[in-house]
């Protein structure tokens, strides 16, 4: 259980800095722990699928997610400390501004007092010219002091405004981190349910597990052929002039590792009934934030597992962008957007997962020509007479994502 972090507002900036430094150390250690879990998950993915390896993968994913939660909690604590430090800095700067303003006001009053005496009358009435020149020098000194003090005051004011912006940014970051923490907890709960479901379905028997895999593969191949057959019949003439230039999309993940390319590849022939992979696959452990590759509008979200379990996208998001392209993000663990929602490039729209048909956790990204792709609901023979709702496009409307994503070089 996570214990709320309690702050003492009597702490000094130095003490807060020390605590922030310790949080950075804790975060680094957790990142090393996560890297180890990820390496173990990757190694399991290379092994032949078995009940034992699937359970190990779920267990490792859970440990990694719990470490992710600890990192997020540490970042929340660190951000709270940063906000407290910034608040102290704001108070200090506001005190300096107040003091400087008082000094400037005092100097202005002294200047006014000197100027109220007519200098010519003073010269004619005074016998001691030393006093006169002292008054003139005082007026000059005060003027210079006013200029210098005003310059310093403006600098402090600018620093104050910058510090206040930093505080606002930190508070916004805090809101994002708290939202992420809640999302990660939900994904851990899903992971636990998935493990319990697998054990129930197989009754902890390897023979039952292999039969389950065989049944899922048959369902997946039947569903794939059905969708591919329908899409191949849709008549569409691609107009290249409606498509954007290459490299217009951003990466959907912070860390990019491509495991499967678009089109006909060795793996696509082995893994897909159509013999062609409809998008690009990225290595992404369960719970990895997935980002929109461009501005656009969410035109569909769903879960194909509700119709055809383990046969297609699983949890997916379908976005129509403002540049002539549309994208689908598949195999998600959690969806963060809703239909009709406007999205900006880089917005977190969901989290990667292992739903639908997969051989391990990853993110699938499909790119289409927007004019041809749409959400469609169709009855399915492969899925026990049910109807499925998912993105559908003519075969020639599927585009190679790598052409539109940033260069890997």
UniProtKB/TrEMBL annotation:
<dbReference type="GO" id="GO:0004222">
    <property type="term" value="F:metalloendopeptidase activity"/>
</dbReference>
<feature type="coiled-coil region">
    <location>
        <begin position="146"/>
        <end position="173"/>
    </location>
</feature>
<dbReference type="Pfam" id="PF01551">
    <property type="entry name" value="Peptidase_M23"/>
</dbReference>
<keyword id="KW-0175">Coiled coil</keyword>
<protein>
    <submittedName>
        <fullName>Peptidase M23 family protein</fullName>
    </submittedName>
</protein>
<feature type="domain" description="M23ase beta-sheet core">
    <location>
        <begin position="276"/>
        <end position="370"/>
    </location>
</feature>
<dbReference type="InterPro" id="IPR011055">
    <property type="entry name" value="Dup_hybrid_motif"/>
</dbReference>
<feature type="coiled-coil region">
    <location>
        <begin position="13"/>
        <end position="47"/>
    </location>
</feature>
<dbReference type="InterPro" id="IPR016047">
    <property type="entry name" value="M23ase_b-sheet_dom"/>
</dbReference>
<dbReference type="InterPro" id="IPR050570">
    <property type="entry name" value="Cell_wall_metabolism_enzyme"/>
</dbReference>
